[in-house]
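Researcher: Quick test of sequence recovery. Tokens follow.
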């Protein structure tokens, strides 16, 4: 479509810019543009196909602050996530590869956005933004930090310590073991996280397998027994053992205190 906009297209952008709107939904244009529901639906569809607005979900669209100059426009991840979650009263936090890269655990820049949230579980494409939305319960959201963007909005990330715990907890999804053990060792040595923080975060957000693995890891890295007492209290009595690195085969010493088989290189 480029700059060859029709009258309705020009009116849509003028209306959005005049009112400083970044999102438009089904029904928003009926009264101000004096059009029918069918005309509105076709207008959104034309501009979305032309890459001049971006459909976030059915009936919800993101609109650029300024009319794109002959090129396709795409929102950034902050705009997409804040619109998608905000309109549904949801919460999110970037996790996995995005958080690994932010905190310097992994130098690879992910091409997909991973976000824990309490509304949707799906893969989505909004403009150039590829999303993997991971629905979790409300009590698994938290321990976050907000990062401002150049557009004046913020992205919500899992905190540094939460990211380390999730790298052990969600190892299958993020392929993060045994790398996470090395990250934890480095972060402890550098003083960027502490044993107390890791224990507190694991007890709040992790499962039994994670608590067992972290307990064995921290004890092996020299954490005092007293420092790990709360973590040990969080253990349930289970006869089965878990592997420190669950995605590889191999034998190792059995750690009876934590109920793990030490088949890890740490």
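Model:
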């Amino acid at each position: 479509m480029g700059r060859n906009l029709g009258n309705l297209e020009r009116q849509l952008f003028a209306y959005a810019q005049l009112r400083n709107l970044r999102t438009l939904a089904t029904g928003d244009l009926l009264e101000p543009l004096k059009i029918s529901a069918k005309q509105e639906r076709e207008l959104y569809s034309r501009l979305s196909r032309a890459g001049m607005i971006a459909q976030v979900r059915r009936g919800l669209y993101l609109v650029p602050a300024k009319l794109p100059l002959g090129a396709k426009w795409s929102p950034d991840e902050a705009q997409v996530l804040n619109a998608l979650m905000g309109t549904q009263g949801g919460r999110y936090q970037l996790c996995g590869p995005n958080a690994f890269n932010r905190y310097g655990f992994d130098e690879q820049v992910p091409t997909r956005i991973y976000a824990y949230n309490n509304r949707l579980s799906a893969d989505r494409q909004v403009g150039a933004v590829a999303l993997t939305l991971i629905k979790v319960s409300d009590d698994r959201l938290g321990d976050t930090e907000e990062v401002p963007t150049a557009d004046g909005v913020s992205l919500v990330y899992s905190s540094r310590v939460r990211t380390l715990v999730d790298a052990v907890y969600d190892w299958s999804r993020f392929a993060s073991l045994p790398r996470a053990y090395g990250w934890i060792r480095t972060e402890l040595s550098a003083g960027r996280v502490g044993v107390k923080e890791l224990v507190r975060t694991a007890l709040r957000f992790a499962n039994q397998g994670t608590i067992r693995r972290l307990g064995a890891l921290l004890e092996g890295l020299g954490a005092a027994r007293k420092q790990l007492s709360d973590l040990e209290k969080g253990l349930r009595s289970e006869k089965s053992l878990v592997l420190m690195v669950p995605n590889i085969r191999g034998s190792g010493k059995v750690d009876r205190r934590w109920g793990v088989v030490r088949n890890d290189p740490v």
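DSSP finds ten helices and twelve strands in the chain.
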